[in-house]
Structure formats: C-alpha cells, structure tokens
Amino acid sequence: MYRTLKKSGIYAQISPTPRELSVCCGVSLLIHGEDVEQIKEISSEKGLNYLSISGLNNTFDNTRHRYG
C-alpha cells in the first residue's frame, strides 16, 4: 500500500502502530486525515487490504516521531 500511495502522490509514512490503537506490536502507515476517502478509493481499485483506518487526537511532533 505504501508504494501505491506514494506513486499516487499521497503522503504516507511507515511507522510502528501507536499504543493507543493496539497493544500488539505492528506496523502502520501515517497518513493525512484529508486523504482518507481517496486512500479508501485507491485501496478498493487496486485490491489493497487494510485492517482499519483510525485517527488519534494528538499532534505530530516531527522531532519525537521519527522512524527511519
């Protein structure tokens, strides 16, 4: 999904799943909220699966949230 979104010009960043969303260790994509509907459409068109799309009510700290 990451590659498909990047090719479509949509912001996506691979990240560990936040603890607020899952107690299990996992991988997520950080996306912008305004892109959700477009991402759902692309996923449907390309046959890409995802478990869920969830939002958090916190601000992104670019100095703290760095995964690379």
SSE layout and pairing:
Elements: H1 2-7, E1 13-16, E2 27-30, H2 36-46
Antiparallel strand pairs: 1-2
Describe the structure.
The chain is globular, with a radius of gyration of 12 Å. With 68 residues, it is an alpha+beta fold. The protein has a domain at 2-46. The model has no long low-confidence stretch (mean pLDDT 83). The chain has a two-stranded antiparallel ribbon with strand order 1-2. The protein is 25% helix and 12% strand.
Q: What are the salient characteristics of this protein?
A:
12% strand, 2 helices, 68 residues
Provide a short characterization of the protein structure.
With 68 residues, the chain is an alpha+beta fold. The chain has helices at residues 2-7, 36-46; strands at residues 13-16, 27-30.
Biggest beta sheet summary = 2 strands, antiparallel
Radius of gyration: 12 Å
Q: Biggest sheet, strands in spatial order?
A: 1-2
Strand content: 5-15%
Low-confidence runs of at least 5 consecutive residues: none
Taking the alpha carbons of the first and last residues, their distance comes to 18 Å
**How many beta strands in the DSSP annotation?**
2
